[in-house]
Every structure is written in C-alpha cells, then in structure tokens.
Amino acid sequence: MITLYGFGxxxxxxxxxPFVTKTEVQLKMAGLPYRxxxxxxxxxxxxxxxxxxxxxxxxxxxxxxxxxxERRYGFDFDAxxxxxxxxxxxxxxxxxxxxxxxALIGARWVDAANFAKGPAHFFDGAPEHNREKLREDAQFxxxxxxxxxxxxxxxxxxxxxxxxxxxxxxxxQLGDKSYxxxxxxxxxxxxxxxxxxxxxxxxxxxxxxxxxEGFPNLTAYVDRxxxxxxxxxxxxxLRQAA
Length: 242
What we know:
This protein is of the alpha+beta class. It contains 10 helices and 4 strands; from the N terminus they run βαβββααααααααα. The protein has helices spanning 18-29, 62-73, 83-110, 112-117, 128-149, 158-174, 187-200, 207-212, 216-229, 238-241, and strands at residues 2-6, 34-38, 51-54, 57-60. A 4-stranded mixed β-sheet has the order 2-1-3-4, with helices on one face. α3 packs antiparallel against α6 (158-174) and α3 runs parallel beside α7 (187-200). The termini are far apart. The mean pLDDT is 94.
C-alpha cells in the first residue's frame, strides 16, 4: 500500500496543495491503492510535499513520484500520445508549474486578505507567544520566492496579465476537447487540474480568479476533473457558482 503525504482538505478544495493534488490524481489514474496522511514539509526528504512511502521507499517531488509510478508499476500516463504530443504535454506542465503556479501563490500568500483567510491558519496550533512571528516569517519567505520567480517583480496586476496569457494558452490547447491532449486524460491533466482548481476555488477572491473565470472551457474542465477524481467531495460546480 502506498502512503501519500499531503496537507489535506482546505480552502474549498479536497487538497490544499496543487502538487499533492497532481500526485493524488495520478495515483487514481494509475488505479493504484493508496492511503493518505497529513504531513508538513519538514517531514519530506526534500522538504516539500508531496512525498510517498511505497513499501519503505520514500519518493519526494510530484514529478519524481510520477516517474517512480511509471517505472515500478509499468503505467504510462501518456499512453496513446505521439512523441510530439508528449513533448507538448511536458512543455505545458513546465508552464503550469513554473508560471501559473506562482500566480496562484501570489494571490494566496501575498494578498493580505487572502493570506489572513487562508495560509495564516497553518500556524494556529503554534505557541501563542510566537505564532504571529511564524506567520510573518512564512509570508515573507513565500513573498521572497514569489519575487525570485519573476512574477513578483512586476507592478500590481501586471503579474496577473502575464499569468492570463498562460491561461489563454491552456484554454486554446483544451479547445472543445475533454482533456488537454485529447479525449482521454493524461499526466499533464493532473497538473493542470491542481493549479486551475487552486485558482478557481470560490474560497479566495482575486483578480486572477476573476480573469480565469473568463475561460468557460477551463471552468468546465475543472468541474469535469473534480467530478471524475473527487466525486465524494462537496464541490459546487463553477458554472453554478458563477
């Protein structure tokens, strides 16, 4: 039995982290039984979530977990794709994880109201005498990483404009298909779903979310993926929420 370590439910999502969501959906895609445990990043071999324990072997980082699943269990997440399509899927995955993801982080951690509503509560269980200091330090570190990502160097809303160009690319790629690369899900769909659901959750208000809602095929895609991979989760379809 594989054990998946993640943050757990929160922010109106079945899993707080887009990267843990990616791995969980890929485990479901592969049809592998697993159990899920809550953990914090310091518990991981790489200091980040997700990580898995597979028969005593610890594997960290969602991309390396995918490679582990493909190698150990012989499952091809991109079965049916041509060599060119596999390359395109990889390029979209890199765009999502190194651009769209950071826009999500800006909306969730850098925006003061959203930080107070969401990530600040990660520290509710800390000793009262240093709880606020831990919150401030964590927000500062994330804001610093946001700056280093490149998006945080731009004027307010310019970062969102850049992120929306990536959302536009995803929307064009999806078109009227059910999934990004065709009419069956593949590995990059787990990545896209995790990031897009994190942006579109009604829990947070942001310019990024409002702009993302302007792509009806992306909102329908998130609803479709949620219904397929988390049918038990109480998710109000985005078409209804809008």
